[in-house]
Amino acid sequence: MTGDAVIHAVNLTRHYRIKTRPLAAPAIVKALNEASFDLYPGQTLAVVGESGCGKSTLARVLTMIEPPTSGQLTINGQRVELKEGEPPPKDLRREVQIIFQNPYGSLNPRKTVTAMLEEPLKLNRPELSAEQRRQAALDMIERVGLRPEHADRYPHMFSGGQRQRIAIARALMLNPKILVLDEPVSALDLSIQAQILNLLADLQDEFGLAYVFISHDLSVVRRIADDVIVMYFGQPVETGPASEVFTQPRHPYTQALFSATPVADPTRRKERVRLKGEPPSPLSPPPGCPFAPRCFKATEECIQGDPPLESVNPQVKVACIHVEKAAV
Amino acid sequence: MALLEIEGLDVRFRTTNGLFPAVEDANLSVDKGEVLAIVGESGSGKSVSMLATMGLLPWTAEVSADKMAFDGQDLRQLTSRQRRKIVGGEMSMIFQEPMSSLNPCFTVGTQIDEMLRQHLGGSRKERKERALDLLAQVGIPDPKKRIGAYPHQLSGGMSQRVMIAMAISCNPRLLIADEPTTALDVTIQAQILDLLLELQQDTGMALILITHDMGVVAETAQQVIVQYAGRQVERQEVKALFAHPRHPYTEALLSALPERAGDQARLPTIPGVVPGQLNRPSGCLFNPRCRYATEHCRQVEPKALADDPARTLCHYPL
Ligand SMILES: Nc1ncnc2c1ncn2[C@@H]1O[C@H](COP(=O)(O)OP(=O)(O)OP(=O)(O)O)[C@@H](O)[C@H]1O
Ligand SMILES: Nc1ncnc2c1ncn2[C@@H]1O[C@H](COP(=O)(O)OP(=O)(O)OP(=O)(O)O)[C@@H](O)[C@H]1O
Ligand SMILES: [Mg+2]
Ligand SMILES: [Mg+2]
């Protein structure tokens, strides 16, 4: 890998306090636990895992919408020190943009496309004239594959895929280095999904963008990710290069996840590794390894302690006592 | 006689720009225990055709059909009272938008209970037990606690599962599932699909599955209908469809699958967009985007051939 990491994350953790009953002490939901990774320009890191495992929480921490409860976040070489409820420094905020899952709900229905695209410029680049802003918006419209006549239309006049293009265009207006994409294609149909994935690949080549790509569609992840983090119950359980993790998933949860993914080939209907039981409740976490109650490899030992993420080779890390680790 | 039979279904919406044909000449028949998938581009009329079948479209919709029968009963002739008895009971639907289909003012338990009371009866205690049972079946952790939750207290995936629980609560003979698993991750999706297939196998429930996930189609469906711009462009048995799509649209759709693209740098896409109300092309509706289109396709609307079991809507089936 060349150049410096655009994101350097060490043990990022985010807990929420929630009140379950009046008067009772607030319970703590450990939404994200000790996520660490480096992300380089032009690279894509995919985050996969079960619903509620903390993917969006990670996205909110990375985009500085929320501060981590503990851990360190360095963006573009600059350490982020964020206080609860305080806006992040403008210059850093500009570097990281987020695209939300729902292309229907995330655009303001009362604003035309250009008005939406010009808005971030108005706030962050006051030196630009109205004319320059409009030109920048028109350039971006073309860049994401929309047509000039779309400029003055409203969101409801666009299809899901076109709206997602608008959302991407808006995110790119301030020339960010990093895009966090929270399930960007899961609401779209196949041909539109393909258009968006091609567009993301083009933009990455052109601008050297780094992507954090959150998805539960493994066929998509396999196609675009350089590195993968598999999360379960708020914590990374397997990390490594996508090529490695996909050809040889090691953590039992990763294996179950891969085998639950339907294959678009009716001649290959397969038996799945069934996960028994249900995802644990964040309000009453199970003892030891959080995956143990559903794991087909679980033994007595597994409930003794939460297994740390350990290297199995120089690139892959796994949090499971039943996976052979590299000799130290 | 098939369980559900629909012939020549048309749905037009009255809009400020005149009538918009959302569904044209839809035909479908589903037998007891059969799993039929409907796939196709966003806006191709998948949801609308099924909502028309259930009688759930708004008043701006004009629905007409040559035949529309559930278990021999003509659905076009039902009084609203008869319809209420069938819809939600023997014939039920999982709606595409779980968040907006649950009533925000009532707890999950109350909403399930209301369904059960209307269609199945039973004592309060029995109904409560059935409700808890259903929530557990769809994989909601801690059903005892969640039964008192309001919809806004649930995640997207959970509301979707509550909707599924409600839809299967009265042992339907036909379940229409409109994108039932989009907000769910793959392990829960697998669990839900297994549950639906179990019901299909054990009780002979027929299942109509609307989805854009071709993996789900491949793993669950027997028959597949492909729709484009309000029209059914082909219908085939699932293996045949994946192996030999007959309509160019189906072929293009399947080639956009990431797993089919292999190491190609770019995923194949379908150029252009689906025609809207104001730019419907003459001839074949797919012709502006079709790589095989000829002058003939631009002029003359294709008709399915009588001897083509796939009823391919194309002048030159593949
Ligand atoms: N503001 C909050 N207050 C309390 N708990 C929260 C809050 N936000 C998230 N959580 C909890 O943190 C956990 C992780 O949530 P998160 O939204 O990150 O999941 P996710 O992986 O994005 O799931 P999905 O795939 O369903 O979007 C969940 O148990 C959720 O209920
Ligand atoms: N109430 C309505 N009034 C006018 N037009 C409508 C109405 N409801 C749906 N339509 C139109 O009918 C067409 C078919 O819509 P439908 O919801 O059936 O699409 P779909 O195939 O289910 O798409 P998706 O995959 O996005 O759910 C669309 O063009 C839609 O805009
Ligand atoms: Mg999320
Ligand atoms: Mg629909």
TrEMBL record, chain A:
Q: Where is the ABC transporter domain?
A: 7-258
Q: List keywords of the entry alphabetically.
A: ATP-binding, Nucleotide-binding, Transport
Q: Where is this region: Disordered?
A: 266-286
Q: Which residues form the signal peptide?
A: none
List the CDD domains: ABC_NikE_OppD_transporters (cd03257)
Q: What's a Pfam family this protein contains?
A: ABC_tran
* GO terms, molecular function: ATP binding; ATP hydrolysis activity
Keyword presence, Glycosyltransferase: no
Under SMART domains, the record lists:
AAA
InterPro entries in the record, alphabetically?
AAA+_ATPase (IPR003593), ABC_transp_ATP-bind (IPR050319), ABC_transporter-like_ATP-bd (IPR003439), ABC_transporter-like_CS (IPR017871), Oligopep_ABC_C (IPR013563), P-loop_NTPase (IPR027417)
Q: What is this protein called?
A: Dipeptide transport system ATP-binding protein
Q: Does the keyword Nucleotide-binding apply?
A: yes
Instruction: Fetch the Gene3D superfamilies from UniProt.
Output: P-loop containing nucleotide triphosphate hydrolases
Q: Which GO terms describe its biological process?
A: peptide transport; transmembrane transport
Automatic annotation (TrEMBL), chain B:
The Swiss-Prot or TrEMBL record annotates one GO molecular function as:
ATP hydrolysis activity
Which InterPro entries does the annotation name? AAA+_ATPase (IPR003593), ABC_Ni/Peptide_Import (IPR050388), ABC_transporter-like_ATP-bd (IPR003439), ABC_transporter-like_CS (IPR017871), Oligopep_ABC_C (IPR013563), P-loop_NTPase (IPR027417)
Q: Which reaction does it catalyse?
A: a dipeptide(out) + ATP + H2O = a dipeptide(in) + ADP + phosphate + H(+)
- According to its UniProt record, where is this protein located? Cell inner membrane
Organism, scientific name = Modicisalibacter muralis
Q: Give the top-rank taxon of the lineage listed in the UniProt record for this protein.
A: Bacteria
* EC number(s) per entry: 7.4.2.9
The ABC transporter domain extends over 6-254
The organism's lineage is: Bacteria, Pseudomonadati, Pseudomonadota, Gammaproteobacteria, Oceanospirillales
**Biological processes, Gene Ontology terms:** peptide transport; transmembrane transport
Q: What is this protein called?
A: ABC-type dipeptide transporter
What is the predominant subcellular site recorded for this chain?
membrane
Q: Which Gene3D superfamilies match?
A: P-loop containing nucleotide triphosphate hydrolases
Please list the coiled coil stretches.
none
Write out the similarity annotation.
Answer: Belongs to the ABC transporter superfamily.
Instruction: Cite the entry's keywords alphabetically.
Output: ATP-binding, Cell membrane, Membrane, Nucleotide-binding, Transport
> Which GO CC terms are listed, alphabetically?
plasma membrane
Enumerate the Pfam families for this protein. ABC_tran, oligo_HPY
Provide the membrane topology annotation: Peripheral membrane protein
